[in-house]
Amino acid sequence: MYKEVDAITKLYEYILWVIPKLDTSPRNRKFTLDDWIEKLLIDTLQFLVQAAYSKNKSELLQNANLKLE
Q1: What is the pLDDT of residues 8-54, one digit of tens each?
Q2: Contact, 5 vs 24, CB < 8 A?
Q3: For 55, phi and psi rounded to 5 degrees?
Q4: CA 5 → CA 19, 40, 46, 48, 49, distances in Å?
Q5: How far are the Cα atoms of 46, 50, 69 from residue 54, in angstroms, in the given order?
Q6: What is the mean pLDDT of residues 54-66?
Q7: Domains: count for the chain
Q8: Pick from 16, 26, 47, 66: CA 20 to 30 A from residue 59's CA?
């Protein structure tokens, strides 16, 4: 579980860093690209958290990987 927790922590820290950066985007990007990036990161974080508590980690980690790809 330590590897998953490390990944969760790193992604969470990245989200905390990137959200303020997205807030400075031009208005015409704010509701398209910025929302998409934010949702993508949060969905990926959700897959990692679910994998940390699941016996079948493979499928959830594969989903997280596909989101990031």
Answers
A1: 999 999 999 999 998 888 877 777 888 899 999 999 999 899 988 98
A2: no
A3: -80, -35
A4: 21, 19, 12, 8, 8
A5: 12, 6, 22
A6: 88
A7: 1
A8: 16
